């Protein structure tokens, strides 16, 4: 929960006017704002996107070979385990990088030099994931097409399939895997230029505005059985659902639904996040929809209502500019609060 005071009626009126101006401005600048970064620049990690305990490993080993980078490696690890070093799948895949035992036996490294190769130890598993990616890239280096896409396809379908088809094979699962990881990569990469505006922003804001004054409900997603009430991430999920973008249920997963504009680059519709640990996106505990002028619409806490409030507080973590591809790429974990 976040602490905030009540916004006076006059201030709310001013914010409403500002919202309209800035939402219009979002579309006016859409054609003039460049997305992505320059070619050849070193890829850094977005603030807090990788938990602090793993960030040095991901940054170091993500530069092991030209086919990967730290953001791409982070996207794979997040997709595989959600940063859970004790993850285990029904297919016996294990650890933060989800190696199956046979693959680990062949490709596991003693990444920290302590004399053992432990699939459950991120200090071994993260270097091993990077090394395995680079080996796959070497196996398919002569295949036509993008080397990174071919590496990801080899990870999913095997190097032989990439060689046989001369690039990413025509398997729906493999093509989807390549798209998912390359989309998630944008969420983990530190932007090196302005982030392209979202054209779904105005619709999400409009929906959130219609819910102003609605009482908060912990776990609320706006269903009729809940009296149309929301918690913070339930509101943001419902707002973007009206624009045919399906966000995850919880705030710390919503953070990965697109690239991360700096505070000075916020536009209406961006999701803004709050945490007591400013080094770890997995610790995020609150989210709102930015409306401009330093304000957001959020569902704050039990006993309060959906309202306008300022974003510039000590627990401000960062922001995400939601994209359709970014949201589609996110894993869909079981619902939790």
Description:
With 337 residues, the chain is of the alpha+beta class. 39% of the residues lie in helices and 7% in strands. It has twelve helices and five strands. A five-stranded antiparallel beta sheet has the order 4-3-2-1-5. A hairpin with an 8-residue loop joins β3 (295-298) and β4. The protein is elongated, with a radius of gyration of 21 Å. The two termini are 12 Å apart.
Short description:
The chain is of the alpha+beta class.
Low-confidence stretches: 1-41
What is the H-and-E element order?
A: HHHHHHHHHHHEEEEEH
- Level of helix content? 25-40%
Number of helices: 12
- N-C termini distance: 12 Å
Content-based structural category: alpha+beta
Major sheet attributes = 5 strands, antiparallel
- DSSP, total strands: 5
Q: What general form does the structure show? A: elongated
**Per DSSP, what share of the residues sits in E-state strands of 2 or more residues?**
5-15%
Radius of gyration using CA atoms only? 21 Å
Spatial sequence of strands, sheet with the most strands:
4-3-2-1-5
Mean pLDDT, rounded to whole units? 87
